[in-house]
Write a structure and sequence with these properties.
77% of the residues lie in helices and 2% in strands. With 264 residues, it is an all-alpha fold. The chain has one domain. The chain has a two-stranded antiparallel sheet. Strand 1 and strand 2 form a beta hairpin. It starts with a helix and ends with a helix. The model has no long low-confidence stretch (mean pLDDT 89).
């Protein structure tokens, strides 16, 4: 299989999982790209940063249709979104800065641990109990900064953090999911831009990379993920979501353990 075909297959799988389970692609895209590129000797010790930056760039393009769909149904709480955005943008830049300063091996371990935590959350459905309203300006700003930072460090849209925060603040789950999808766009845009700027001109990066965003992989993943997402949505109405989440959690465990293996 050629490398471009591998990107296309990865994008198709990510699209199906997004439509089927509503999970973001970063948890899959980052470790698979690291594996593909390590086998090619691509990007040297900057391979993890390149994978994370590319993952965030894919989210920019794939999240637009999701946000529009939620907006048309009136589910996005735009006042909450705008309160979170400044902290999210600050956090996205901060997270990208931290990630680009870490050695590749350390960043890979951070991602592996995060992946295992997300696998546990998906398998057991752990959610915080609702018990309060949204905090004030400083509290919301701090939450946005933490969400943006963590998302940019591991290359995800942040839904696994934004949804629990909003439900903890008594936002209804449908509105929390929709608002989280909207928040994924500034997370991905701010994070991807930071990875482009911070990686610009790095000697180890391959031809076709704009900073830590690799164009050929971005194109291959985005095209097929957007084509296959409707298939995943159609399958979700026929299959047991709970069982699929547990199987997918095992898959994430395997990816997380591989990322923790001492290979860099």
């Amino acid at each position: 299989m050629t490398i471009m075909a591998s990107y296309a297959v990865l994008g198709a799988f990510v699209g199906i999982m997004a439509g089927l389970l509503g999970v973001g692609g970063g948890l899959i895209i980052v470790p698979v790209l690291v594996y593909l590129w390590q086998s090619q000797g691509l990007a040297g010790d900057q391979v993890v940063q390149l994978a994370i930056g590319t993952s965030l760039a894919t989210i920019v393009l794939t999240s637009i249709s999701s946000v529009w769909s939620h907006h048309r149904h009136g589910s996005v709480q735009w006042p909450i979104f705008w309160r979170l955005v400044p902290g999210i943008l600050l956090g996205a830049w901060l997270g990208a800065t931290i990630a680009t300063q870490l050695p590749g091996a350390a960043l890979k371990r951070v991602f592996g641990i995060f992946e295992l935590l997300m696998a546990a959350q998906m398998a057991f459905g752990v959610r915080p109990a609702s018990h309060r309203r949204l905090p004030g300006v400083l509290g919301v700003g701090l939450a946005g900064t933490v969400i943006g930072s963590v998302a940019a460090i591991v290359g995800i849209g942040g839904g696994v953090l934004t949804v629990p925060f909003l439900t903890w603040c008594n936002v209804r789950i449908q509105q929390a999911v929709a608002t989280s999808a909207a928040c994924g766009l500034p997370i991905a845009m701010g994070g991807a831009l930071a990875y482009v700027v911070l990686g610009w001109g790095h000697a180890q990066l391959p031809t076709g990379a704009a900073g830590y965003v690799y164009g050929p992989a971005l194109l291959g993943i985005v095209i097929t993920s957007m084509l296959f997402a409707p298939l995943g949505a159609a399958l979700s109405r026929r299959l047991s979501t709970l069982m699929l989440k547990r199987v997918f959690a095992l898959f994430l465990v395997a990816l997380g353990l591989w990322m923790l293996a001492p290979q860099l």
